[in-house]
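SAMPLE LOG
Freezer: B-3
Tube label: C17
Construct: single chain, 257 aa
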Amino acid sequence: MKTFKKIIIGASCWSAGRILQGDTECLVIDRHAAIGREYFDTYRECLPNDAPLNTPAARELRRELSERGKSGDTAALAPALYAKLHHLTGQFRLWTEITGIRREADCWRISIHDVEGDKVLHAESLIDCTPECITRPDFGRSNTVGIRLNAILLAPGCGKWESSSLRLRPGRREDEFVLSVQIPPGTGWATARALLLAEWRKRPESWRDARICTIAGEFEYEVRESSARLDDNYHYFNSARFSDPLAALDDAGDTIC
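STRUCTURE (predicted):
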């Protein structure tokens, strides 16, 4: 029976950074097919970050973006990151659902289900780095302060749009904007999209010709605590705590409890 040194739940930019830094005894599990969804699929605002980066992988990714004229472009980072991870796919189990977690004598037993059926994995330690803490939903619900659903708009030549119920910020181009709507915690996806579209229908007349390009595939979470001890060798770590995905990739992991 193989026991992993560490299993990370959540294929985040932070967990990808752990793999890129050479953590060969680590396995990352996620129910989705993409990596870094907490940044790339939320359309969240990322703050400019010119701070020195410590790891070779993060520095190389920043250099690549700069050479392509895409510095600070979160969307442009995704394909560059995936290319770096291509030869490390064996340390990721995507499209995998966790069906159970329980403590055994000296390790954690993780039951999973994927296209091949049911399996059991063992790990000395667990880290749930999903912002909503999917493995402990009771903790996740109590820890969630707010949720936002964002959408990218194409709005050439539109005037001002001010509302207390939403946020609007510039996108990557002059005619692009990001609409952000506050959603009550615990809201399902269908209702959340309906709330965003209800705000969209109330847009000013000067915005009538604007279009929604895409609605985010992941909520943007605001949490009370970004790290917590859930059990012995079992921690929560909010992978979306960093100002931008490069900072998440660059983190050394010392901030975990």
